[in-house]
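[step 3/7] fold_predict: job queued, chain A
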Amino acid sequence: MEEPVIQIGLDFSLASQEVIGILLEDTSGPGVFDEIAKANTGRPEILKLLIEHPDTPSDVSAYASGVLHLPVKAGRDIPEAERDRAKRAPKIFQKIQKLNVSGKIQLALKGGREIRGILIKDPNKEVMQSVLGNQKITDSEIEMIARSRQVPEEMLRRISKNREWVKNYAITQALVTNPKTPPGISVSLVSHLKRKDI
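[step 4/7] structure written:
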């Protein structure tokens, strides 16, 4: 019987300023800015972080400025923000490495692709497994994890227990062909492969 997977979301109102700062540096999209702003109306330091961040959408910046009763900043130079993003990328890795396990788990559950890519290689198994709980994780990322010979056996077991992931042929094939996949799992999935792939 398949174990139920419990999804634990990150409560932005409880996340540390360091975790929120890293999430803002990530390229996960504008939605996260809005969620952070609305969850932190009582935390001026977080709202100021949003206002000062070059990638904060103008409507979120205006909302945060309104909550703090500050004048709204003029529009941002988008091309300059894009250049800054390329410079910030290596800094994300360094900031993540300074976090404790709890902070890394929070990021693993809510971060974008870049953060997930960093945390899937974390030496702590709990952090690695938390990446699989991220609701934004894609099938291509799951396939990459299923092919990896560096991930622990528990990760491969967890992937094999998720029916949606195993429905994807590339993920099933990756699990069967990965020598780290426990034999019991590989044998049970072989029947799903096409003859040419056996």
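[step 5/7] annotate
The CA atoms of residues 112 and 180 lie 27 Å apart.
The radius of gyration is 20 Å.
exit 0
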